[in-house]
Amino acid sequence: MHCGVGQFTRLLQETIEKLEPGTSATLTLTQTEGSLAEIWRAVGTAQSVVCNFPIVAWKRVMFAPLAAMAIARLRRRKVVLIQHEWNGLHWLRRITYMPALLLADTIIMFSPLVRRELANDPLLGWTAKKSVLAPLPPNIEAPAAIDDSKLRHRLITAKGDGRLLIGHFGSIYPGKQPNALLEIGAILKQRGLKPLIVYIGSFIRGVDRVEEEFHARARELDLAGDVIVSGFVASDHEVFGLFSEIDVFCYPLDEGLTARRSSILTCVQSGRPLIVAGPVLPEEFDHHPRFKELIDRGAIVLVARGSDNDAFADRIAAVVKRPLVPLPFDFDDWWKDVAEVVRAQL
């Protein structure tokens, strides 16, 4: 299954190589690749080992990354852990990642809120003292051209029928509150705005029953015919082809907007307005001036955290009347920013 953190890892390594050719290498760990002997040899050639969590296939390769970090400590290499989230993870996943926090010399995080979540952990809160903040870039760059698809034609037809297309991009899991967007869609439908909610992404398979509960809630709200779930879309050109038909993106996140939301940054590149719950912490974007600029310029529209679903519906109805104003977005510079922070820790 496609893994956003895996994609981040690949792009990070590629950017570091561009900045300083020949200084980094990757070690692939799967059920069939990356034996202990291979890990030992690879770590022996390095000065630092960098590992990213969480990964989608965590149950299949739970121990190999931890073994790599343990071998790195044993061989006196520096261990850098990049931890993308904490409280948003299922408690079983957090347990399996605890050794990584202990083994790491430095923990790179992307959100002050996530760092505070770790600091408040009763067992491992002290490890937050090892953390530094880095600015997260988007995983996907808007291509110069888009690809057509059957789903795009379906969206074009829906727009021709006067439907209001509301987008939601990325993996679908409880932390993104996918059902909350259904509630907003039900309000818009009652107002006669004919919403069609388009989830561009797929459900993450895990211990939760998020997919079954999602479809059950859609039926309860009489939205079963007003929801589309694309499933995994492999091509960036096809993704942005779907984005081109969306009227507005909406993320009613319970935790509010954080600086670790790469999917938000991908959507913004489409030039479509994006509505999201405001951040918990006023300093959430102090370390990330590029993200903050998108908010200041109105590309990302904040709704006060804790607002009811009617407030989100009101904002959607208002922003779709605005003319589209594409913003310049220097993808390479976003990646240079994070690569420089990581390089400074090696």
What descriptors fit this protein?
13 helices; 2 domains; Rossmann fold; 4-stranded parallel β-sheet; about 350 residues; globular; alpha/beta; single chain; 6-stranded parallel β-sheet
Gist?
The chain has 346 residues and is an alpha/beta fold. It has helices at residues 4-19, 36-44, 63-74, 91-103, 112-119, 150-160, 178-190, 210-220, 236-243, 262-268, 289-296, 309-319, 331-345, and strands at residues 48-53, 78-83, 106-109, 131-133, 164-169, 195-200, 227-229, 248-251, 274-277, 300-303.
Structure description:
By secondary structure, the protein is an alpha/beta fold. The chain has two domains: 4-139 and 334-345, 3-Layer(aba) Sandwich (Rossmann fold), CATH 3.40.50.2000; 150-328, Rossmann fold (3-Layer(aba) Sandwich), CATH 3.40.50.2000. 41% of the residues lie in helices and 13% in strands. The protein is built from 13 helices and ten strands. The protein has helices spanning 4-19, 36-44, 63-74, 91-103, 112-119, 150-160, 178-190, 210-220, 236-243, 262-268, 289-296, 309-319, 331-345; strands spanning 48-53, 78-83, 106-109, 131-133, 164-169, 195-200, 227-229, 248-251, 274-277, 300-303. The strands form two sheets. The protein has a six-stranded parallel β-sheet, sandwiched between helices. Helix 1 packs across helix 13 (331-345) and helix 7 (178-190) packs across helix 12. The longest helix has 16 residues, at 4-19. The two termini are 30 Å apart. The mean pLDDT is 92.
